[in-house]
Fold this sequence. Notes:
- The protein contains three helices and no strands.
- It is an all-alpha fold.
Amino acid sequence: MKRARVWVLGIAAAHLLIHGAVLLLAAEQSARRYDTAVAPGVGERILEAGAFILSLPLLPWMSPTWFPGLVGYLPIAVNSLCWGLAGWLLLRWIDGRRLR
């Protein structure tokens, strides 16, 4: 059980870091063209799509007013834990199929 917890938390931490990096990169890309009428490039659209995918399953359906201030980071952490649990279950399923 302890090993499972380590895997879930490790995957969740990796998801949290990647999600944060993608959000920062997308914000930086959109800030570059803020004063111009230039349409977003392919790279920026890919980053936005990646940020949306990483925010699934919880964040798109939550209102920012539900968790004001620093408590707003709680849904992001719970979302990462969902990804960690899903990743661990996927790894267990792959490992079980490989052993057959």
